[in-house]
Amino acid sequence: MDAVFIKVPEGWIGFVEQVPGANTQGDTLEEARENLKEAVSMVLEANRELAEATIAGTDFIREEFHLTAA
Questions:
Q1: pLDDT tens per residue across span 12-47
Q2: How many other C-beta atoms are found inside a 10 Å radius of the C-beta of residue 14?
Q3: Is 57 left (phi over 0), alpha (psi -120 to 50) or beta?
Q4: What is the per-residue pLDDT for 43?
Q5: What is the mean pLDDT of residues 49-63?
Q6: Per-position DSSP letters for 3-49, written without gaps between them
Q7: Long-range Cβ contacts of 44-52 (<8 Å, 24+ apart)
Q8: Domain coordinates of the chain in residue numbers?
Q9: Whole-prediction pTM value?
Q10: What is the pLDDT at residue 70?
Q11: Environment class of residue 65 by beta-carbon count within 10 Å: exposed (0-12), middle (13-18) or buried (19+)?
């Protein structure tokens, strides 16, 4: 995954194209980077909670998934 950072008059905006909803801002590039790490973690955790609720009570298998992106 790649993070994209855009310089704006107020500082920096950051997002990850592959993780919808993971976007943030910061006064400095370093602050935007740190904020983006937190935003991605929050989105992934929220998605996991939604998935857990969806599969609750069903017969399922959970396994690690590896993807090499081009």
A1: 999 999 999 999 999 999 999 999 999 999 999 999
A2: 24
A3: left
A4: 96
A5: 94
A6: EEEEEETTEEEEEETTSTT-EEEESSHHHHHHHHHHHHHHHHHHHHH
A7: 44/19
A8: 3-55
A9: 0.80
A10: 63
A11: exposed
- What distance in Å separates the CA atoms of residue 52 and residue 46, rounded to the nearest whole number? 10
Q: How many Cβ atoms from other residues are within 10 Å of residue 19's Cβ?
A: 16
Residues in the chain: 70
Paired strand residues for 15: 4, 23
Torsion angles phi and psi, residue 13, rounded to 5:
-110, 140
Phi/psi of residue 19, nearest 5 degrees: -125, 85
Residue the block writes with tokens 């998934």: 65
